[in-house]
Amino acid sequence: MRSISILGATGSVGASTLDLIAREQDAWRVVALTANGNAAELARLALQFRPEIAVLADETRLPELRELLTGTGIETAGGEAALIEAAARPADLTLAAIVGCAGLAPVMAAIEQGGTVALANKEALVSAGEVLTAAVAKYGATLLPVDSEHNAIFQCLAGNQISQVRKITLTASGGPFRTWSAAQLAAATPAQAVKHPNWDMGAKISVDSATMFNKGLELIEAFHLFPVGLERLSIVVHPQSVVHSMVEYRDGSTLAQLGPSDMRVPIASCLAWPRRMDTPCEPLDLAAMGTLTFEHPDEDRFPATRLARQAAEAGGAIPAVLNAANEVAVAAFLAGRLGFTRIADHVEATLSCYAPAAPSSLAEVLEVDREARSRARELMENA
What is the pLDDT of residue 276? Predict the structure, then answer.
């Protein structure tokens, strides 16, 4: 029996993970389950999976959680410190899926235990890549990428040396607006942006897919995960989302990982690593699909990937500023206060007015994030 903690258990990645664990529940012992504020759902999951502890980030919802779990013997806690303590509990595998910079400190706590961390939190490597990878090396931890693209690269690298890689290519679906004109993009609504053609995701990541910021953030993640150099990382638009990424080697061979558009596939890769496990996912029927297509990104209509590459080149605190400004802009768009095409404009404006020194600790990363959000909001108010 292996032990696991799931940070962000009520989100889409957490739900997919628990779906797989439920199919082999006798093989797993759940140490911790955490959620942001959904006490009822966390209690339901805790009753099913019987963790040692259930934690809510929103401490005001803790009384509800405690009432729902009274008499179960399951420990309950709330607040940021409780999240960090839960993440620090020894486990064979920690699935880190807390959205946003709220997940940074728990991820660091898990890394400092020297265990295996399956990373689904983009901000950890985007905002704190240098700090995080240094901690991985210091504490002897293992990072497994959960994102379908990075997990695909990880699988394509298995048994090969990173020094033999000529190029790594991340694939992008192009989102719901791939074929839209600039005029159509300017009038895009939040309801349209969250309807991803291939993946079932949360609102924020769906908007990021529509703007291509999701792929830009993944480019920065790949830069830290796979040290081949930024010039050897590329993006190609692949609307069918069947090929999840590709690795080209020096001999001209290109390995690609294919699979259904279901997060349970890369999650299963992490849960079973270095082996494999069964999933309920439908196998690919390439003959039924008929055609797979690829095209270059259009950085005139979707400048997010250009901004992300520039941020990665600049390094230091700049990727953290990019991420923070994008989160502020996406929230404003979802609230109806900012146009779709203004998201990238607002991120670029924030980057042009705030370039702090490179952070050397998690505390400094979080301070950069806080200040960048403040600057981004000020720019929006004064626009």
Answer: 96
110 and 5 in contact (C-beta within 8 Å)? yes
Alpha helices in the chain (DSSP H): 12-23, 39-49, 62-68, 80-87, 104-111, 122-139, 148-157, 182-186, 190-193, 203-211, 213-225, 264-272, 286-289, 304-314, 318-334, 342-353, 362-382
Distance CA 153, CA 169 (A): 8
Please give the structure tokens belonging to residue 296: 């270059």
Same domain, 56 and 115: yes
Name every residue whose Cβ is closer than 8 Å to that of residue 281 and which is 6 or more positions away in sequence. 259, 260, 262, 264, 265
**In this structure, are residues 103 and 125 in contact, taking their beta carbons and an 8 Å threshold?**
no
Query: Are 128 and 165 part of one and the same domain?
Result: no
Q: What is the pLDDT of residues 219-277, one digit of tens each?
A: 999 999 999 999 999 999 999 999 999 999 999 999 999 999 899 999 999 999 999 99
Last-in-domain residue among 145, 164, 189:
145
Nearest partner of 56 among 48, 332, 66, judged by Cα: 66
Helix (H, G, I), strand (E, B) or coil at 99: coil
Q: Which domain holds residue 69?
A: 2-145
Alpha-carbon distances of 8 from 5, 100, 185, 377, 382, rounded to whole Å: 10, 11, 32, 27, 35
Q: CATH number of the domain at 108, please.
A: 3.40.50.720
Q: Do residue 8 and residue 129 come from a single domain?
A: yes
Rounded CA-CA distance 340/82 in Å is 37
Residue 179 falls within a domain, yes or no? yes
Q: Provide the mean pLDDT of the chain.
A: 95
**Distances in whole angstroms, Cα of residue 45 to Cα of each of 8, 48, 69, 321:** 12, 5, 11, 35
Longest dimension (CA), the chain: 62
CA distance 382 to 366: 24
Domain count, the chain: 3
